[in-house]
Amino acid sequence: MKNRLFETGQILASTDWSPMDAGLAQPAVDPTTDLDIAIIGGGVAGLHTAYRLAPRYGPRIGLFEQDQRLGGRVFDVPASADQTDGPFVQLGARRIMDGQSVLIGLAQELGIPLQKPEMLEELGFTRGMFSTNNDDFIRVFPTLDVDRARGGYETQLYERLLKGPERAHVDHYPNLRAYAEKVIGKEGCAFLHDTYRFRADHEYDLNAKAYLDYLDEENDAGAICPSGHCQSLYPVGGMSAYTRGMEQSVRELGVQIHLSEPVLAIHKCAAGYLLQTPRRALTARSLVLALPPVALAQVQGEIPEKIRAQAEFQALVGVRVTTITQWYPEPWWRGIVTANGRHVWRAWTTGHCINSVEIPLEEYAAPQNAIRVVYNDQTDCAEKWSQLAKGPIAALEKEVAFGLTHLFGNNQVTRPVTIGTPSKTVFWEWPDAWYYLRAGNHFTNHDIYRWAVHPLPGEDLALVSDGYNPQRSGWADAAYKSSIHYLNHRFDMRLPGLGRRT
Questions:
Q1: For residue 314, how far is the Cα from the chain centroid?
Q2: Can you give the residue ranges of the Amine oxidase domain (predicted)?
Q3: pLDDT on residue 3
């Protein structure tokens, strides 16, 4: 994976690295590094697991992370390198939903305030038309099969997918597309695809039953709502406020944290498991593999090989996402208002690969003059941005400006604005921003969730990541729930937040 950070044309950082680059030297086993529990992966699932286990095991836990930071896809950056204490802008996860009780409870536990800005207007473009009301797009979807007198066309379509009589036969369909076309028709599928900021859901070859089960949980969390007008909560300090709070506690309790130290190979040994990093070899009696599938695929040894051979592992498919964040001297987007003076907080388009734009409204983020100008999960657009990021910064910024002008320059819905010149541009690519189940397998999301806590019979190890909890609702929620499931199952912690799931 290659990511580049630009500032006025200068590359600040570039990574193009995999654990295999370090080779597999054979350092001697250091008997002082024998661990009770080794946690491999310092994303929020691994860090949360260490946070809960630290009071019991303290320095007998080792946490290994290949990056120089903890948090994984919870990745916040400051405007400049000298602002180590923030404020921070989010490159990955930005928010939680007001139905996500696990993250709300953890915020209270860690003393993180949550800001609740008003979700104002969402501007969209498809089939040559701009609007801030998805129902207006019925004009360019004239054959859409909905009750026009009732309105709420997006909600009507989802209700038919989730609650219609055909769902009882969903297992008979080869994939999500076939099921959806049967239930809501091709024009209904096109409407949901074109009037929503995420497109991969409708483009990847997904298991229909698993996807509908996931939508049920999204609905429970409050993430499915007409025209995207859901209530979002934003932590003061960014999503990394969770990471910093847990990391401080873990370090105070003596957990060994090894940053920039990937685990290259895992083997069985008499003491349990032999782990090899570029710096050392060590043993652990119990393993928590907090690596998403795309990262676990790079680890050598018979243990990872056995996991990858499991049909459950092979059923998972990661969604590729690219984001671009820009800082500006002046927040030109504050001028994007409707005729009645309402501000736009989000915009999407099918007319350009910027795909989705997120405008910060919360009190913590708004003064930073930073905006996520690209949030894209379409495969062809992800490839386009990835190729542009390899070239001159000017070419990438020109393409971003073209897309922003298309959306906001003169759309006849909001007041025209002039796009400024950015002072800093950050491109980031997530090869697996979230996971679904691919079509052609018989597993449910719950099957994967249960399998992950004990994927290999007779082995004291578990898989902890949102990658193994495809019943996910949001960037971070599923990772925490995966960790809680493991902790409750293995250590009888009885942590709340999983509802009826076992």
A1: 20
A2: 44-335
A3: 53
Looking at residue 173, its amino acid is: Y
Angle between helices 176-194 and 208-221 (to 10 degrees): 40
For 153-194, how does the pLDDT look when each residue is reduced to its tens digit (9 = 90+)? Answer: 999 999 999 999 999 999 999 999 999 999 999 999 999 999
Residue 25: per-residue pLDDT: 45
215: tokens are 């939508």
Write down the mean pLDDT value for the chain. 91
**pLDDT for 141 beyond 70:** yes
CA distance 463 to 288: 6
Residue 450 burial (10 A CB sphere; 0-12, 13-18, 19+): middle
Ranges 82-96, 219-233, 360-374: which has the least confidence: 219-233
Using CA atoms, how far apart are residues 73 and 475, in angstroms rounded to an integer?
Answer: 8
Neighbours of 439 (CB within 10 A): 20
Find out whether 276 and 303 touch, Cβ atoms under 8 Å: no
Residue ranges covered by each domain of the chain = 2-75+239-318+436-491, 122-228
Task: For residues 196 and 126, give the distance between their C-alpha atoms in angstroms, rounded to a whole number.
Answer: 10
Indicate the helix (H) or strand (E) that contains 324: strand 316-327
pLDDT of residue 16: 36
Task: Give the pLDDT score at 24.
Answer: 44
Asked if 235 contacts 243 with a C-beta cutoff of 8 angstroms, the reply is no
- Partner residues linked to 4 by β-bridges: 14, 427
The residues facing 358 across adjacent strands are 346, 372
CATH of domain 2-75+239-318+436-491: 3.50.50.60
Closest CA to 499 of 213, 98, 220: 220
175 within 8 A of 208, measured Cβ to Cβ: yes
Q: Which amino acid is at 235?
A: P
Find the helix packing angle between 208-221 and 153-163, rounded to 10°. Answer: 120
| Confidence band, pLDDT 50/70/90 cuts, at residue 30 | low
Q: Where are the alpha helices (DSSP H) in 227-292?
A: 240-252
What residues contact residue 296 under an 8 Å CB cut-off, 6+ apart? Answer: 289, 304, 307, 308, 463
Which is it for the CA torsion 182, 187, 188, 192, positive or negative?
positive
